[in-house]
Amino acid sequence: PLAALNCGQEGLQYLCSKYSALISRLREETLTREDAEQQKKVLELRLKDQSELFAQERDRYLLELKAAEAKAAASAAAAIVPAGVSSPTGAAASAATQVATSSTAIALGPSHA
Q1: pLDDT tens digits, residue range 57-98?
Q2: CB neighbours of 85 closer than 8 A, spacing ≥ 6?
Q3: Distance between CA 33 and CA 35 in Å, rounded?
Q4: Cα separation values, 6 from 9, 18, 67, Å
Q5: By the 8 A CB rule, do 64 and 56 touch?
Q6: Helix (H, G, I), strand (E, B) or coil at 85
Q7: Is the pTM for the entire model greater than 0.85?
């Protein structure tokens, strides 16, 4: 009976030791998971902020690009205006007249040019 009691005590100590180790491990894993979830929230907020900043910069860039394209188009239109023509509309009419004259000369042949 004394041996059985001693064996029972050792078994109980073994089970208590295992139970304590499992509880400690569970606490550690719970703290690790909570830390990971907190880090995830921080990273999600940082990603959201970066995404909003990127969208703002992209919108600003697109506005600058459109302004530059409009300025380039205006410069190109101004460069096309021939001497003696005061407006781009007049330049278009002058160019159309030149094309029509050239087309007529080609259609009539070299003797009528």
Answers
A1: 999 999 999 999 999 999 988 887 665 655 545 555 555 555
A2: 91, 94
A3: 5
A4: 5, 18, 91
A5: no
A6: coil
A7: no
